[in-house]
Design goal:
Distance between the termini: 22 Å
Helix content: 25-40%
Shape: globular
CATH topology of the largest domain: Rossmann fold
Strand order of the largest sheet: 3-2-1-4-5-6-7
Number of domains: 2
Low-confidence stretches: none
Number of helices: 12
CATH class of the largest domain: Alpha Beta
Strand content: 15-25%
Radius of gyration: 20 Å
Number of strands: 13
Order of helices and strands: EHEEHEHEHEEEHEHEHEHEHEHHH
Structural class: alpha/beta
Length: about 350
Amino acid sequence: MRIAVLSPISWRTPPRHYGPWESVVSLLTEELVRMGLDVTLFATGDSQTSGKLVAVCPYPYSEDHSVDPKVAECLHISEIFERAAEFDLIHNNFDFLPLTYSGLVGTPVLTTIHGFSSPKIIPVYKKYNTRSHYVAISESDKSPELDYIATIHHGIDINQFPFLDADGEYLLFFGRIHPDKGVYEAIQVAQRVGMKLVIAGIIQDQDYFATMVEPHLDGAYVEYLGSVGPDQRADVLGRAIALLHLISFDEPFGLSLVESMACGTPVIAFRRGSMPEIIRHGETGYIVDDIEGAISAVAAIESIDRTQCRADVEKRFTSARMARDYIRVYQEILNGEARDEQ
């Protein structure tokens, strides 16, 4: 089975720090190769893979500002479709734009929809709904206007997130510094319960950071670590009492939640998007509706068995499970068991 995997080029695959789509693509690619598939990864030239690498853009445009994003994306996407006949299937992880090439080739195209940046992009997915195949990353993120061949939750390499059987030292926010992600809400909770809060992640909204986060940074009770890379990530997650994920949007999936639970750290999250699909309420964390609920959850967090958090990730959220699910979908498409191409 010859699979072409199309990764985004905003960041390296795998990313050095931030880059959730690129991270998932890397994990999937490595597992597919390990399972014996012939995989060609289309990504940036500095990407790392045990499969075959094809690169038009030498460096990610979010790291090299001499690269014009639109030009790089056009060249990147066109490369895989001009070589479509070399593959049995193209697995698109680059959002909606590659779909506009899919009608020009005979090779089947599977698109993992990593979330909808805006309702305005749905018409593109609708146009190719009957000739392409879509995978949702959570049940909550499915559009009623589209058909899906499967829902496949993301997985992680649990070897990168060793279990830490400890009581924890602080509450943790881990993610983008952006209003949607609930950094200020996490600060409020930590201050109300009198616990230290550690904040880790890239600053995506500088004004929000300057007005809502930075004034609370004192190094003692609220500390900002900056962007935490793979070499520090497991330690920061594992030493936390709980991960606070008090989001204000319907998040399609939360990789940081899975990574946290793999280390044994339970999660407290607002009831939005995919959170109920990831967290087992009362077993691996708590799903709450407001700040008061989060405060109550912190008080009850010691009742969560950290070994249960790890066990649930080992059962439901490994990269190997993710890869097996995708291979089943590939086979279903190639065997003609999915709907006929139109």
